[in-house]
Amino acid sequence: MLDSRHIRAVTLDLDDTLWPVWPAIARAEAVLLEWLATHAPRTAAMLGTTEAVRAIRLQVERERPDLRHDLSGLRRESIRQALGQAGEDTALAEPAFDLFFAHRQKVDLYDDALPALEFLSARWPVIAVSNGNANVHTIGLGRYFQASLNVGSTGFAKPDVRMFHAAAQAAGVAPEQVLHVGDDAHLDAVGALGAGMHAVWLNRKGVDWPAQGPAPHATVDSLHSLCRLLEQGS
């Protein structure tokens, strides 16, 4: 059971916890294709659809395991490879990625995200812990977070306990004083438990617990439910 009296900080996943990630990525990929149609038309014609853009990114992920957790590096390299395959200037990968990345930050928050951020940040230091490349400051949420950690800033990815311990260190507390909240049963809940933290699984879709090993301290169907749970336990 979750006892919020022992919590001194909260770590929070971003993608699919505060906003649905795939709509934002799909829009950014569509903008990327439009840009390529003007600046690298052979590449745009070769790719054709956002599905093809995604397919070449998955191909690069298979070929470059060193970039597996570096989503920005994967995207930049996939654009570079597409340009090279089409016989166009691979230097265009940089401005193309910059455009994609700017639009990837244009997310649509879940209705419960802002109220939850207000609630959590008023009570505890909140640290963003993400395997993605969203930027909370660009999105406009930086004021709610004491720090934001990802693969680029730590060199680790969830469920590596070192990522969670780095977040605890950023909050200035011990891991056992941290509550981690996220939507991914394995990366978030199991990872946090392995790091010695409290864990709440955000299960918006109402699916059964899919992971092996110990269950999280609590499961909630929304961030509203999370806040009510924490309020009751204080």
Can you tell me the overall shape?
Answer: elongated
Report the strand count.
6
Rg from C-alpha positions?
A: 19 Å
User: What is the SS-derived class?
Assistant: alpha/beta
Main β sheet profile = 6 strands, parallel
- Please state the average pLDDT score: 94
Helix content: 40-55%
Distance between the termini: 13 Å
Task: Note the run of SSEs as H and E.
Answer: EHHHHHHEHEHHEHEEH
Task: Note the total helix count.
Answer: 11
- Bin the strand percentage: 5-15%
The strands making up the biggest β-sheet line up spatially as: 3-2-1-4-5-6
Model regions low in confidence, pLDDT < 50 over at least 5 residues: none
Please characterize this protein's 3D structure.
By secondary structure, the chain is α/β, with parallel strands linked by helices. It contains eleven helices and six strands. A six-stranded parallel sheet has the order 3-2-1-4-5-6, sandwiched between helices. Helices cover 50% and strands 10% of the residues. Helix 1 packs across helix 2 (41-47) and helix 4 (71-85) packs across helix 5 (93-104). The radius of gyration is 19 Å and the shape is elongated.
